[in-house]
Amino acid sequence: MFLVTVTNEKYFLNAINLIESYKFNSFNDKVLFFSLQLPDSYKKKLKNKYGQQIHIEDVPLVCEHAHDLRTFFYKVYAIKRAMEFGNDFIYSDSTNEIVKFTIELKNDLRNAGGRLFFPYNHELLKNKYWTTTKCFEKMGCFGQEFKEAQQYWAGLQIYESSPKNRQFVNEMYDYALDFEVN
Length: 182
Fold this sequence. Notes:
Elements: E1 2-7, H1 12-25, E2 31-35, H2 40-50, E3 54-58, H3 73-83, E4 89-92, H4 105-111, E5 115-116, H5 127-130, H6 133-138, H7 144-148, E6 156-159, H8 163-177
Parallel strand pairs: 1-2, 1-4, 2-3
Antiparallel strand pairs: 4-6, 5-6
Helix pairs in contact: 3-8
């Protein structure tokens, strides 16, 4: 299971900590590292430290908000690109750390239907408080059940490589390109 993360210069050391925790407590497989305007010297340090284990790629400016930290487009971009590698993967924000062995994660992933998302459990973190009417309309989510649904933590998502998930991620990417949906 690959590790996928995105970072900028501010969180570079956090990203190294995440990678090291992945190597120690997780699958220690390929790391897909996406850069938000990270200087070349930082990318070189990563390549020197991790060699062939790490794939480094810049998040391109495919839309005006591609590097805007408030819209999370960069996360969706990294997830879409990771899906193209054809392996199961963990998307994690660079500020996270894997603190326990993840040996059961593949079983958990399959038992969950191929995707693991983690909902917030707080009344104030429902979609109705954070999602615009325009977003609900553009996504065709008109029912009250969409507004009352809990938001999910975007900082940790786990995907099985499957046609169903590729379709889901492609749809998520298309929505993320639209600033009014973000």
